[in-house]
Amino acid sequence: MQYRRLGSSGLQLSALSFGAWVTFGSQIGRSEARELVAAAWDHGVNFFDNAEGYANGAAEQVMGDVIADLRLPRDGYCISSKVFFGAAAEPAPTQRGLSRKHVRDACDAALKRLRVEHLDLYFCHRPDPDTPVAETVWAMDTLIRQGKVLYWGTSEWPAALIREAAQIARTHHLHGPTMEQPEYNLLRRERVELEYAPLYAELGLGTTIWSPLASGLLTGKYADGVPARSRLAQPGMEWLQGSVLGEGDARLARACRFTALASELGVAPAPLAIAWCLTNPHVSSVLLGASRVSQLLQNFEALTLLARFDESVWRRVEAATA
Ligand SMILES: NC(=O)c1ccc[n+]([C@@H]2O[C@H](COP(=O)([O-])OP(=O)(O)OC[C@H]3O[C@@H](n4cnc5c(N)ncnc54)[C@H](OP(=O)(O)O)[C@@H]3O)[C@@H](O)[C@H]2O)c1
Which family does it belong to (predicted)? Predict the structure, then answer.
């Protein structure tokens, strides 16, 4: 495993980390979840990602149980949660968003479900147009001073809002955002490469990027339709089909050109797509998702490909998916 600093902070996260979205508490059972966390840990993963909204809190519960069961040393791994969407099936106004009340309630609930005394990373899962940014910055700072959170950050916030939060923190001597969690893959590059570009030097922002395989599209598994056991076939995931497969054939065609190039290079597409994410030095950690251990093991090969291929290969990969 390779370890990278989370922006300009002193926290070193594994370059490949592991998240619970769709799978934990929903698509897979507890024993599969346990095997996945154990395999990730055995391969040097030290960051496990979660959110209050994943399976309405069930993902956090399963992850907390499994990590406790595996007896992972608390000082050897980092765990995250995210606040915004709420954990209730139909959240009341006080059970969602980024108000001081919900930020505190959601943190306390995540600590219980994950069975830990602090969250290493805590994300504002989306911007909240109904809460002043200053209220959220103060609420996050309070959690850090209480020892319930170590680093706070954002997920899919516009650059201007991240800058505003950082400015408020600076003015009032509060802890500002350390990291952002954006989608980043060969089919979605703009935000990480262009919009956030000034923030890396300006704020020392780190990134823990999600969906490196575009929910599996870059493995080539959706080239001939939606396979029965795949993410897009899961009940309740119909909404995801539109954004993953896209309107028309453009995304699918780009994914097909990518898998054709992977086959020409003689490598599996999944680790190639993940390794490409790691070529960006502003990526602190690539969050992997997996529904079975064999996928995770294949995805860890990304580190070998990263060392093996040079700039000319990465330019071909980018040209194929342009
Ligand atoms: N902050 C946010 O808003 C946000 C949003 C999304 C995700 N995230 C985080 O980022 C993590 C990773 O995102 P993601 O799960 O979307 O990542 P991803 O790598 O794009 O998709 C993972 C899925 O692709 C399939 N897959 C993975 N490896 C494969 C392989 N080698 N061969 C074939 N299929 C493979 C599996 O689905 P199937 O086997 O079911 O097809 C797996 O669950 C999440 O768990 C979550 O922690 C955050």
Answer: Belongs to the shaker potassium channel beta subunit family.
